[in-house]
């Protein structure tokens, strides 16, 4: 999940429960409101850790389950895929059956899936459990915001959604470190076990949550949901399997072609549905598209590092899981304070558009800087600069984008716009993490292939070795060689992986730079044509 924030309920469709109606307390009243707030905030603290902690756990899971490296990747990808795919459908279903019921179902599913993850002895069962947890997370995210919005009003609501940003940032900041500490001390299963226990506390708070439904909920757009989820699944599967099957293989080409075909079908279906999951007319709004591209920049500069960089530190530095997770705090802790800085800059006269320009600039510069300093044995002091800049870049737009999106569309389209933002945000994360992982494997394999002849005692192939390195395991392959050769072999592996990382980081910096320029131009477009102030470019 990376860095997602909650969006407001759907304007024009949401009917808030009135004080004294339904079950639970009135808006902002009594201890019930406090319990509801605590339950949702605890949920938002938990969900991001499932993404940021996953990369740290992979080496431990691989050693324990003896999983194939291909199956091991889906521990991360399965959660990301289902989380991203079911957001829009989850919002529609919450409107139909009730937000509290949806929240309860999501919490129950996430709890059960986390418990199953902790108990799984087969990696394929673990992959299925993580996919189920992603569905539960989507249900929790889509319903939790509406529950808070119907429980609190006025200034209290503003303070509550500020707390939402802090809780989500806290989950991002602590996930990798918590996973590392738990994996090194109690084993990787304890990480998912803690998730299950904490979510049980959330379930105990369900009786205090308010129920509300959409005023004219038309039901779930199942044709749109099925075609969208299937398209995203085929795209991710093709991206993940590209290095394994070969990018020119019929299987991979078929998967990618199927993804494109299903996305076209999705567009045709949505144009003909009376109540589509997504209103395609929003794509014509240049300012909305610009704002929705900002999380894509975050994805390529920041989010791809969350599950993948800890594995690099395990291989290139010989770090423990705990040390790798602690290093990641350099890029996650700034999220807790930088949003306050962004607010102060705007209050002092800096336009929101300028803040949105500064944020991608920091992200682009940070990822380019990281490419220049990354090397085997790199210490926290050298990593601090680029990682902190990346954290500042994310913090400058953290939550601000969600609010700005609501100012550039008609009031009746705010729900659809917020849903599109979160879907593009999480969808880009799911695909980009898979693509970055595949690129690292591909590039590392080419570099390993050229140098393995220097180690005739190693009998594995370069493809399997590249997969092992990207999963954070260099000790297993090195252990197959005589002890006197292991240090030189480990250094060779670290340098090959570093070369692959530098290439991926520089490519990410180029993508981010191009998107940043496009975002700045698109946000200025209407203002320059009409001469009128633009809500997305003025404080």
From TrEMBL:
<feature type="transmembrane region" description="Helical">
    <location>
        <begin position="102"/>
        <end position="120"/>
    </location>
</feature>
<feature type="transmembrane region" description="Helical">
    <location>
        <begin position="321"/>
        <end position="343"/>
    </location>
</feature>
<feature type="transmembrane region" description="Helical">
    <location>
        <begin position="290"/>
        <end position="309"/>
    </location>
</feature>
<feature type="transmembrane region" description="Helical">
    <location>
        <begin position="132"/>
        <end position="153"/>
    </location>
</feature>
<keyword id="KW-1133">Transmembrane helix</keyword>
<feature type="transmembrane region" description="Helical">
    <location>
        <begin position="387"/>
        <end position="411"/>
    </location>
</feature>
<protein>
    <submittedName>
        <fullName>MFS transporter</fullName>
    </submittedName>
</protein>
<keyword id="KW-0812">Transmembrane</keyword>
<dbReference type="Pfam" id="PF07690">
    <property type="entry name" value="MFS_1"/>
</dbReference>
<dbReference type="InterPro" id="IPR020846">
    <property type="entry name" value="MFS_dom"/>
</dbReference>
<dbReference type="InterPro" id="IPR036259">
    <property type="entry name" value="MFS_trans_sf"/>
</dbReference>
<feature type="domain" description="Major facilitator superfamily (MFS) profile">
    <location>
        <begin position="34"/>
        <end position="527"/>
    </location>
</feature>
<feature type="transmembrane region" description="Helical">
    <location>
        <begin position="355"/>
        <end position="375"/>
    </location>
</feature>
<feature type="transmembrane region" description="Helical">
    <location>
        <begin position="33"/>
        <end position="59"/>
    </location>
</feature>
<feature type="transmembrane region" description="Helical">
    <location>
        <begin position="252"/>
        <end position="269"/>
    </location>
</feature>
<feature type="transmembrane region" description="Helical">
    <location>
        <begin position="221"/>
        <end position="240"/>
    </location>
</feature>
<feature type="transmembrane region" description="Helical">
    <location>
        <begin position="500"/>
        <end position="523"/>
    </location>
</feature>
<dbReference type="InterPro" id="IPR011701">
    <property type="entry name" value="MFS"/>
</dbReference>
<feature type="transmembrane region" description="Helical">
    <location>
        <begin position="189"/>
        <end position="209"/>
    </location>
</feature>
<feature type="region of interest" description="Disordered">
    <location>
        <begin position="1"/>
        <end position="29"/>
    </location>
</feature>
<keyword id="KW-0046">Antibiotic resistance</keyword>
<feature type="transmembrane region" description="Helical">
    <location>
        <begin position="160"/>
        <end position="183"/>
    </location>
</feature>
<keyword id="KW-0472">Membrane</keyword>
